[in-house]
Amino acid sequence: MSEGDGAPGSARRRRNIGRGVLWSVLAVFVIAAVVSGLFVVNLAHNFDANVQRLPTTFPNDVSRPVKPTQGPASNAENILLLGSDSRSDDVDLAEQGLPSNQRSDTMMWVHIPADRKNIYMISIMRDTWVTIPGHGEAKINAAMAYGGVPLVVQTVEGMFNSRIDHVAVVDFEGFKAVTDVLGGVTVNVPIPFTSTHGNYTFPAGPQKMTGDQALGFVRERYAFVDGDYQRVKDQQIFLKAVLNTILTPSTLGNPITVTNLVKDVSPYVKVDQDLTAPTLAALALSLRGVRGSDVKSFTLPTLGTGTSADGQSIVLRDDAAISAIAAALANDSMGSYMAGAGLH
């Protein structure tokens, strides 16, 4: 009987080859795990090393809505996203919870439902006339001037009777940074205009923007008949375009792009003390099935514009819409609210 017919030496060789293949496969998995682990550790280090922490974020706990421990909203997350301008001398005062001349031009309530199937972004018009705790009625962006980030949190939590879990303040320069890291972002411009910020011309339709163009796009309001209304819509369009670019296998599967994104953008972001790298990583992991088309955005409905008793031009709040959104947050049913309200 030949060795090819099953001789003992042949069997030993096959076993040795089998072991070799097994150990090779195991080695590949071990190396992949080590590389993956180092990649995650490196991302966490870059985030924690570069991101800035807000010294004072939340108001006194007794004045805040209580987060439910049971029910549909107990596992949902609410994040307040504020846009700031680093050129202001009063940014530091506002972030310490002190009165200043700083106002937030961009305000978004980001709701992440418990099932993690969508992300909902609600833009709040900066001139919306609301009740600011301790100061009476005023434009909502005055809360930043009266009492910094904590008073903004208290004001919007009071509007929706829901608790905010985290706060992120994003410098407008961050829009530029994220666009450049991604190699440009394709944005579908709804209304053609020429920006007064950089004198960029944007024709209607899809176009790939550089970082400088993106900055001009998201900041513009003077070019529009309805001013801030269109700027808010454009900011939503841009953020969704960014997420459409990021939430793709080609981006998420590229370690260099992901590393650069975290390293280059995090210096323009300030977050609360609890939004650490592990917390953010856990949230990102829970959203691994979300794609750009799953991100829904709308502007908080209003009753149009008007004039306050002291002569200010204001945006009139829609209390019925606010109550309906508050109920949707409490029931974790934002998708149903949007469908019923005809919002897309």
Walk me through this protein's architecture:
This protein is 44% helix and 20% strand. The protein has helices spanning 8-50, 91-95, 142-160, 173-181, 211-219, 228-246, 249-252, 255-265, 277-286, 319-331, 334-341, and strands spanning 52-53, 77-84, 106-112, 119-123, 129-132, 136-139, 166-171, 185-189, 193-194, 201-202, 205-209, 269-271, 295-299, 302-307, 313-317. A 7-stranded mixed β-sheet has the order 1-12-7-2-3-4-13, covered by helices on one side. A two-stranded antiparallel ribbon has the order 5-6. It is globular, with a radius of gyration of 25 Å. It has 11 helices and 15 strands. It is α+β, with helices and mostly antiparallel strands and 344 residues long.
Quick structural summary:
It contains eleven helices and 15 strands.
Give the SSE layout.
Blueprint: H1 8-50, E1 52-53, E2 77-84, H2 91-95, E3 106-112, E4 119-123, E5 129-132, E6 136-139, H3 142-160, E7 166-171, H4 173-181, E8 185-189, E9 193-194, E10 201-202, E11 205-209, H5 211-219, H6 228-246, H7 249-252, H8 255-265, E12 269-271, H9 277-286, E13 295-299, E14 302-307, E15 313-317, H10 319-331, H11 334-341
Parallel strand pairs: 1-12, 2-7, 4-13
Antiparallel strand pairs: 2-3, 3-4, 5-6, 7-12, 8-11, 9-10, 14-15
Helix pairs in contact: 1-8, 4-5, 4-8, 5-6, 10-11
